[in-house]
Design brief:
single chain, about 400 residues, Rossmann fold, Helicase, Ruva Protein, domain 3, Arc Repressor Mutant, subunit A, five-stranded parallel beta sheet, three-stranded antiparallel beta sheet, 17 helices, globular, binds magnesium ion
Length: about 400
Amino acid sequence: MNNKEKSPFTPGSPVPYELFVGRQKQIREIFRYVDQTSMGKQDNLFLMGDRGIGKSSMASFIRHFVATQKNFLGIHVFLGKVSTLEEMVRLIFEQLLKEVHGQTWFGNISELFGKYIKQIGLFGISIGFTPPKQDLEELVKRFPEALSNLLKKMKEQRKGLFIALDDINGLVEKVEFANWYKSFVDEVATHYNEFPVYMMLIGLPEKREMLSHLQPSLMRIFRIVEIDKLSNEEVGQFISQAFESVKMKISQEAMDLMVKFSSGLPVLMHEIGDAVFWIDSDGTVDREDALQGVLSAAKHVGEKYLDPQIYRVIQRSQRYNSILKKIGAPLSRNFVKKDIETRLNENERRVFHNFLRRFKKLGILETDIEHGSGAYRFVNEIYPIYIWMQSQEPKPS
Ligand SMILES: Nc1ncnc2c1ncn2[C@@H]1O[C@H](COP(=O)(O)OP(=O)(O)OP(=O)(O)O)[C@@H](O)[C@H]1O
Ligand SMILES: [Mg+2]
């Protein structure tokens, strides 16, 4: 019972598809478009959502599905560190190459990549694509043609291409990217009858606005899918699946606690789950394990997801901490100054104004203009939940 080897929780990386939960409606919608794409119609989707809400996990789940069920060649490329179109295109083709490597029909397509396929044996690294700058520039310019030639070569084996471009946050700030994308779509529409390529761009919601600002007609091209928190049922489903996968049991009380503190946020359900997994010692997660797990997860969340400066202030300030606890548990993301004041004692009320000012300046709180004067909100979902988790700290007896 006690031989823990590997946690089923994956805080910080996309969830394996067996444990993926929720997003049914969006996924059904996307599959409909993918079906159209397999008939030859190029399609473009912008998947957006806040940090850690589950964009990459969803893209990875969809890629797996379209590869296994719809017979697509699917790739998921992370462009977080990429700032040029040349490097982007290089990565796209390298990923395609890797995906086909090991298939019997690798020979069919490898000739397209010329002499720039690099076989790397070291450290188990399989294969690379490293053409000179000039060729890359050509590939950027003639991207549709290059994809079309690839499609022709794999026609017998695959129905289409699924390309997810993840973390495009840096790239979309460049006008070259917006213009390049626009010409890609236009050229495909005017020059190709059959172009079964499904493109999925993934980024933060504000990046979509950025893109539409740089190239207004782009916005007509994208279907937008936005993802938000999971429901409590979905979180519960995830937690039970995860524990089941390692043959652990969980009491109802413990489950309720874990669901409550996860607050629908995928990152939190993984942090809490992981902490609980390692704390439990008898194969059955009970209330005590769950509570301890929440506290331990709070610490990780504080260290990993909060700005270090903010983390220190929240940790250190006794006075502010007692106010924070009174703002309410569970803390809601929005609150009104007057409502909180009624809960504070004389001393706390006196520093409350400074507290709000300080927290605003630190970037933890912002005024919530939509809800009138005296309304505030935390700048993201994690801060209030973090503070709430922290306030569970057992009092020293
Ligand atoms: N549908 C899901 N089911 C189970 N776990 C999920 C789901 N979605 C996300 N997760 C988990 O939540 C965490 C964040 O997910 P992910 O990395 O996919 O989010 P993201 O939106 O891509 O984040 P970022 O903005 O940092 O790129 C990861 O630990 C992941 O395993
Ligand atoms: Mg991501």
